[in-house]
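Section 5: illustrative case.
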C-alpha cells in the first residue's frame, strides 16, 4: 500500500466540470482515467407493494411500457405482499419488480431516462438480480381461468431514444428458471447513443406459441464503462514532466506498465490442513443435500462478513473452482425473535453477501443462487441462546452436480 500523505495533490479545475455520474480515479503523481458510471433511478424498485391488476399506476422512477404497447393490460407488480401467491423476499432493499409474459402475446416492461447517456462504441458492464416465482397464479384474458404464470421467461435490455423505445437490443438473459435469486451479469457495446433504457420480460425464443411466465427483477447495478475486447484496461497512465535525462527518476522513460496477467488457478492440493467443511467432497455429496457453513460470522444485525470467515469461504470457493458443474443455493436463516420482514431482509442480505464474495473471487455467477428464509426453518428452540445461535445460520444446498471420476 502506498502512503498518500507524502504526495501533495494540486486541484484540477477540469475535474470540477465533469458530470456527477463520472467516476474519476486519481493516483499519486499519475494522470486520472475517466470512466463513465451511469446510475439508475430506483434500481431496486423500492415502492409500496402493489398488484398491477388492482388498477395501481406508476412505479417510482420507472415508466410502465404497457401504457404504450398493450393498452388495457395490467401494469407490473411490486412484491412481496403475497400477490399471486408469491412471497419471495427481496434480494435488495424491501421490494422488487414482478413482470409477466402472457399467452395472448402480450408482455410487460418498464423504462426510464438515463441521467447520463451511453455512448456509441464504448463497452459497458451491468448486473441485476433475477428469479422466477414458484407461484404466480392469475386469470388469463383468453379463458378467464386461473393459470400459474411459471414458465421461464428472459429479460431483455433495450436502449433507445425515448421511453420504451426498442432501437437497440443491448443484452438478453438466459431463461430465468431459478426459484432463488441469482446475479446475472451482462456486457454490451451500444451502436447508438442510448438515452433511455428498458427492462422487458419476453418469451424464450424460438417459441411456437406465446405462454404464461414470470420474471422477478431486483438490485440493478450501476452501468460501468469497461475496456472493449482487444483494448488495454482502463487504467491511469504515468504523467511525469519532461525533464532532462540527468534529472529524471529511474522510472521515468520506462515502458508503460503492462496489464496484470490472468490469474493462474492453483494446483489441486494433495495434502492440506483439516477441512472446516468436510462434507464438501465431490465423491459423496448428493443433489438436494444441505450443508451448514460453519465458521461463518457477520457483524451484528448486518450482512458484513468478518475476516474470521474467510478461511471457510475460501474452502467453499476452492471446491466450486475445481467442480465447475456444481450449482448451489446459498440460504440465509435467522432466529425467531425479530419481526418477519426484518428476518427476511437480513437473511437474504447475508446469503447475497456470501454469493458476492465467491463471485468476486472468480466463481461463475450462474453457479450460485441465494435466498433468505428468515425464521421459517428453525432447527432448534428459540427459547435459549444456544438454540437461537443454531437457527441463525447460512447453509448451502446442492442444486445440481456432475461428479468427476
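Designed sequence:
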Amino acid at each position: 500500500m502506498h502512503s498518500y500523505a507524502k504526495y501533495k495533490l494540486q486541484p484540477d479545475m477540469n475535474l470540477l466540470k465533469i458530470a456527477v455520474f463520472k467516476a474519476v480515479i486519481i493516483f499519486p503523481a499519475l494522470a486520472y482515467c475517466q470512466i463513465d458510471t451511469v446510475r439508475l433511478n430506483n434500481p431496486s424498485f423500492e415502492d409500496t407493494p402493489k398488484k398491477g391488476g388492482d388498477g395501481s399506476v406508476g412505479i417510482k422512477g420507472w415508466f410502465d411500457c404497457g401504457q404504450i404497447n398493450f393498452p388495457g393490460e395490467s401494469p407490473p407488480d411490486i412484491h412481496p405482499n403475497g400477490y399471486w401467491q408469491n412471497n419471495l423476499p427481496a434480494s435488495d432493499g424491501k421490494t422488487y419488480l414482478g413482470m409477466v409474459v402472457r399467452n395472448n402475446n402480450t408482455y410487460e416492461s418498464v423504462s426510464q431516462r438515463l441521467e447520463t447517456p451511453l455512448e456509441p462504441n464504448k463497452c459497458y458492464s451491468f448486473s441485476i438480480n433475477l428469479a422466477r416465482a414458484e407461484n404466480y397464479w392469475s386469470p388469463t384474458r383468453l379463458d378467464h381461468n386461473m393459470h400459474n404464470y411459471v414458465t421461464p421467461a428472459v429479460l431483455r435490455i433495450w436502449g433507445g431514444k425515448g421511453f420504451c423505445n426498442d432501437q437497440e437490443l443491448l443484452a438478453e438473459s438466459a431463461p430465468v428458471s431459478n426459484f432463488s435469486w441469482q446475479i446475472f451479469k451482462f456486457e454490451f457495446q451500444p451502436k447508438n447513443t442510448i438515452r433511455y433504457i428498458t427492462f422487458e420480460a419476453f418469451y424464450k425464443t424460438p417459441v411456437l406459441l406465446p405462454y404464461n411466465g414470470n420474471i422477478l427483477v431486483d438490485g440493478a447495478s450501476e452501468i460501468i464503462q469497461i475496456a472493449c475486447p482487444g483494448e488495454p484496461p482502463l487504467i491511469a497512465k504515468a504523467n511525469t514532466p519532461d525533464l532532462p535525462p540527468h534529472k529524471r527518476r529511474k522510472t521515468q522513460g520506462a515502458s508503460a506498465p503492462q496489464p496484470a496477467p490472468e490469474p493462474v488457478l492453483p494446483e489441486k492440493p494433495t495434502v492440506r490442513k483439516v477441512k472446516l467443511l468436510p462434507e464438501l467432497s465431490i465423491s459423496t455429496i448428493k443433489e438436494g443435500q444441505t450443508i451448514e457453513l460453519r465458521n461463518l460470522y457477520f457483524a451484528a444485525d448486518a450482512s458484513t462478513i468478518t475476516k474470521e470467515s474467510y478461511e471457510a469461504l475460501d474452502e467453499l470457493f476452492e471446491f466450486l473452482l475445481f467442480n465447475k458443474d456444481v450449482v448451489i443455493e446459498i440460504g440465509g436463516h435467522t432466529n425467531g425473535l425479530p419481526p418477519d420482514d426484518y428476518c427476511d431482509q437480513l437473511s437474504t442480505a447475508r446469503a447475497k453477501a456470501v454469493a458476492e464474495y465467491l463471485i468476486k473471487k472468480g466463481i461463475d455467477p450462474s453457479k450460485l443462487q441465494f435466498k433468505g428464509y428468515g425464521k421459517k426453518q428453525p432447527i432448534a428452540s428459540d427459547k435459549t441462546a444456544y438454540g437461537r445461535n443454531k437457527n441463525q445460520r447460512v447453509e448451502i444446498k446442492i442444486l445440481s452436480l456432475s461428479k468427476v471420476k
